[in-house]
């Protein structure tokens, strides 16, 4: 019904940068918010950043000043620019979207995840 396709993960050295992308498709009427979560080995999934339809943003304290979330409304795509990456940022990053469809309002959709590894 709703598909989220992530890209941009990979291996990067400490201090480096990566840009994650997530494109939403399907029977979407409205996107209320899109964001990124992450889950490191042995830890719970946590919100990294999200962006609402009114341009309100939330960031995990540990990424403030280093990560920036943005979106392209025409493409139903959200981005996460990650700078000054640290080893503690290593995790699987999941895209999330809260949307309205013809059948469900709201619908909480998730991507399959993309691995980010920060290591020298």
Question: What would you note in describing this structure?
Answer:
The chain has no helices and eleven strands. With 120 residues, it is mostly beta strands. Strands 2, 4, 5, 6, 9, 10 and 11 form a seven-stranded mixed beta sheet that branches. It has strands at residues 2-7, 10-12, 18-26, 28-39, 46-52, 57-59, 67-72, 77-82, 91-101, 107-110, 114-118. The relative contact order is 0.33.
Short recap of the structure:
The chain has 120 residues and is mainly β. Helices cover 0% and strands 60% of the residues.
Distance between the termini: 40 Å
Report mean pLDDT, rounded to a whole number: 97
Report low-confidence residues grouped into runs of 5 or more.
Answer: none
Secondary structure category: mainly beta
Q: How does the overall form come out from the CA principal axes?
A: elongated
The helix-strand sequence is: EEEEEEEEEEE
Radius of gyration: 14 Å
The main sheet comes to: 7 strands, mixed
Strand content: over 45%
Please count the beta strands (DSSP E, at least 2 residues each): 11
Number of helical segments? Answer: 0
Give the fraction of residues assigned to helices: under 10%
């Amino acid at each position: 019904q709703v598909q989220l396709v992530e890209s941009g993960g990979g291996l990067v050295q400490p201090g480096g940068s990566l840009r994650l992308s997530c494109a939403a498709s399907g029977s979407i009427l409205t996107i209320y918010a899109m964001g990124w979560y992450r889950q490191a080995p042995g830890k719970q999934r946590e919100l990294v950043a999200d962006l609402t339809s009114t341009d309100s943003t939330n960031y995990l304290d540990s990424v403030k000043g280093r990560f920036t979330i943005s979106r392209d409304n025409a493409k139903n795509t959200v981005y996460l620019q990650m700078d000054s990456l640290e080893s503690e940022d290593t995790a699987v990053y999941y895209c999330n979207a809260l949307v309205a469809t013809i059948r469900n309002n709201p619908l909480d959709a998730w991507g399959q995840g993309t691995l980010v590894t920060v290591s020298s």
